[in-house]
Amino acid sequence: MRRTIAASILLASLLGIGTAGAAECPADALGVSRTLVVDVNEHPRVGSWQYGESLPLNDHEVVLTFDDGPLPPYTDRVLDLLAAECVKATFFMVGRMVQAYPAAVRRVYNEGHTIANHSQTHPFTFHKMSVDQASREIEGGFSSLRTALGDPKAVAPFFRFPGLLRQTAVEQYLVDHGDMTWSVDLAADDWTHINNRDVARRAISRLEARGKGILLLHDIQARTALALPEILQELKARGYKIVHVVPATPDRPKTVTEPELWAAARHAPEPKVWPRTLAVGIESPEPVLAAPSPASFGIETVGRTSKVAMAQSFDRQPEAPAWPSPADYAVPSESHLLPIAGAHNFRNVRVFRLGEPEKPKVAAKKSPARSRPAYGGWRGNWPASSRGSRAVGHQLTVVRPPINLAAPQTR
Ligand SMILES: [Zn+2]
Questions:
Q1: What is the pTM of this model?
Q2: pLDDT tens digit sequence for 68-81
Q3: So where are the chain's domains?
Q4: How far away, in angstroms, is 163 Cα from ligand 1 center?
Q5: DSSP 263
Q6: 140 and 129 Cβ atoms separated by less than 8 Å
Q7: What is the pLDDT at residue 315?
């Protein structure tokens, strides 16, 4: 019976019919036991992993949070499952994901969940970036959400640091701007390479150990979407209650709470490093290229001198593994091939050596047609007579392959 109702809700939601109303809830749905309205200014930071306060939950109360989305189809699956149990959660979204999938953001909002900010691009440098940079990430995330929803009031002033990489100055920025920083109380490690059964097991066993808390999940992960039915089933079977958190507004006063319920003993070490969890398009992985080496860019080191070839030199490729692979750039046989630009093609190229110059060798290659100094080992300005351009641009020692010396100047 429940399955039939759940299926009809799922079908209705796929058809775009509003299903968030309580009327459609099955009698045995997990549901939301209460809505907690929080005053952001009174409690600017929550989550016992990092702070001395967490949400004022009673025993066996859980707040579900989903980070890093939205990412169809996993977010959609998560929403279907939450709707089937009439459960509300908080979604900490990444701005560029929001820009990519604005319809998914609207669905999350329209189904009654809390919309929160997880930065614009999910950088893992929040602990060391300037407040100025952080403010751009924070405000960029809020701005993307407001644009997607078209209503500033639709976005909760809740922020969670990517990777929980906090720093005091940025936390202060958030306080100054009326934003609440969320850490976590419990995680299910769903960003690691474990299967969905382990995600569910860790979520439940840690909840059983702590008794209550803010649970961190990721709606961009297939394993999380697959684990959610078991998590919700276990929560119900073990008598847990879902609490939905929303911010206080002028027409929605805060929930009156026991002050001591906010106090939380920090119970997890602050993570120093957090694996990257943002995975866009993981169902069709991008081809991965090996990291480039200096040789990939035509730079070779002879003794203490680094040379950069600014002209194509195909004859060097066999011994220097090219990056990207030449195979990735198949050229149609009828194409006309043009040589890569040489240093002489750029008006404002200044060159200097990275190490000791090789004066005799490079000087011998100097073009007699030019009054300029040789490319290698020279670090002064161009002579005043040379096109009147100032010395700016590349600051690398350049060796021009012989083929290049002849070509354009003799034409
Ligand atoms: Zn994240």
A1: 0.63
A2: 999 999 999 999 99
A3: 25-262, 288-411
A4: 6
A5: B
A6: no
A7: 44
Give me the torsion for CA of 393, 395, 400, 406, rounded to 10°: 30
The rounded Å distance from CA 160 to ligand 1 centre is 8
Per-residue burial over 324-334, b if 16 or more Cβ lie within 10 Å, else e, is: eeeeeeeeeee
Please report where in the chains the tokens 């939205």 appear, as a residue.
70
Residues paired with residue 242 on neighbouring β-strands, in sequence order? 62
Residue 125 has pLDDT above 70, yes or no: yes
pLDDT greater than 60 at residue 6: no
Q: What is the DSSP string of 154-196?
A: GEEEEE--GGG---HHHHHHHHHTT-EEE--SEE--TTSS--H
Domain spanning 25-262: CATH superfamily: Glycoside hydrolase/deacetylase (3.20.20.370)
* Ligand 1 geometric centre to CA of 35 (Å): 24
Amino acid identity at 349: V
Q: Whole-angstrom distance between the N-terminal and C-terminal Cα of the chain?
A: 85
Percent of the chain residues topping a pLDDT of 70: 59
Instruction: Collect residues with CB below 5 Å from ion ligand 1.
Output: 67-68, 162
What token pair was written down for 166? 């906090």
